[in-house]
């Protein structure tokens, strides 16, 4: 009887749902803790550079989030996180930054070409500080959604099911954003949920997806001055997006535009083709040849 307890505990601990819940908690709590302390106790009175303070607090929250993720993988999953390997960090993160900026700029170029975007002026470069701070949320979201949720779902249910489920959940995570609707939720799921999961599967590390996520948000808010997922922003460029909501994205921002969805889905399909070509697609557990062997090994350990 006493020998059964470790096996039962191990099976519960290794259950994908258990790991997802524990991972979400262990990563989000340090991040939320730092942000709460900064908002309520850390902000100096009479501060003149609030953006700099928020940048420092957000950076500290990111470090704490990564620490929580490392503790989760060591204590719960008993491994070193390959997805956080610094090998390829600069090249993968840099490529993500370039791709994210190009995708959003390409979306705006198409809107301009078809007469839906008009550029009217510029702002001082200092206005981009707020957008830069907000773009750092890409680190938080990639740790939680791709590092915990998508990775564990993919390990259990395979790439294609994990891709669909994580995209839907990522869209639903934005349902409470300002000016969010069913259409904006679907747009986020299709353009960002699919693209960022594909970027993770392509490298097996978080850096490519994180760079892509951060650059998309910064280019959108910091360069073009458009709402980021419903949050109004002031950017380097001053302009207006017009046309029907399904083209302009309405008050939520260009992320809800059909053009943005098509641009990002095209990129997602291209990356997924590379994932398939390189044999990186994972099968669900019930289709793996070593499934029986792994299950016996787990139960007998």
Write the layout of secondary structure elements.
Layout: H1 4-14, H2 16-42, H3 50-75, H4 89-113, E1 117-122, H5 128-135, H6 137-157, H7 159-172, H8 182-203, H9 207-223, E2 237-241, H10 245-248, H11 258-277, H12 291-300
Antiparallel strand pairs: 1-2
Helix pairs in contact: 2-3, 2-6, 3-5, 3-6, 4-9, 4-11, 5-9, 6-7, 6-9, 7-8, 8-9, 8-11
Which percent range fits the helix content?
A: 55-70%
Largest sheet: 2 strands, antiparallel
Order of helices and strands: HHHHEHHHHHEHHH
Q: What does the radius of gyration come to?
A: 21 Å
Q: What is the distance, rounded to the nearest whole angstrom, between the alpha carbons of the first and last residues? A: 15 Å
Spatial shape: globular
- The parts where pLDDT drops under 50 for at least 5 residues are 292-301
Strand order of the largest sheet: 1-2
Q: Structural class from helices and strands?
A: mainly alpha
- Tell me, rounded to a whole number, the average pLDDT: 89
Strand content: under 5%
Number of helices: 12
How many domain regions? 2
The strand count comes to 2
């Amino acid at each position: 009887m006493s020998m059964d307890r470790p096996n039962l505990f191990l099976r519960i601990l290794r259950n994908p749902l258990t790991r997802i819940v524990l991972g979400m908690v262990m990563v989000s709590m340090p991040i939320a803790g730092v942000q709460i302390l900064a908002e309520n106790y850390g902000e100096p009175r009479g501060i003149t550079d609030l953006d700099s303070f928020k940048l420092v607090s957000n950076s500290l929250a990111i470090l704490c989030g990564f620490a929580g993720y490392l503790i989760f993988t060591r204590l719960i999953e008993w491994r070193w996180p390959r997805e956080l390997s610094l090998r390829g960090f600069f090249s993968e993160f840099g490529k993500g930054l370039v791709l994210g900026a190009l995708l959003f700029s390409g979306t705006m170029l198409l809107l301009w070409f078809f007469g839906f975007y008009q550029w009217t002026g510029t702002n001082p470069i200092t206005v981009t500080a707020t957008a830069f701070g907000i773009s750092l949320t890409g680190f938080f979201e990639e740790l939680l959604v791709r590092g915990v949720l998508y990775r564990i779902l993919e390990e259990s249910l395979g790439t294609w099911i994990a891709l669909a489920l994580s995209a839907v959940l990522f869209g639903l995570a934005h349902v409470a954003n300002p000016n969010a609707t069913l259409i904006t939720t679907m747009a986020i799921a299709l353009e960002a949920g699919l693209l960022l999961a594909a970027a993770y599967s392509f490298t097996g590390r978080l850096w490519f997806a994180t760079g892509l996520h951060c650059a998309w948000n910064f280019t959108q808010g910091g360069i073009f001055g458009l709402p980021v997922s419903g949050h109004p922003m002031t950017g380097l460029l001053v302009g207006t997006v017009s046309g029907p909501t399904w083209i302009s994205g309405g008050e939520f921002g260009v992320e809800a535009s059909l053009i943005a969805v098509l641009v990002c889905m095209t990129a997602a399909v291209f990356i997924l083709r590379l994932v398939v070509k390189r044999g990186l697609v994972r099968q669900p557990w019930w289709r793996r040849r070593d499934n029986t062997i792994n299950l016996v090994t787990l139960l007998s350990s």
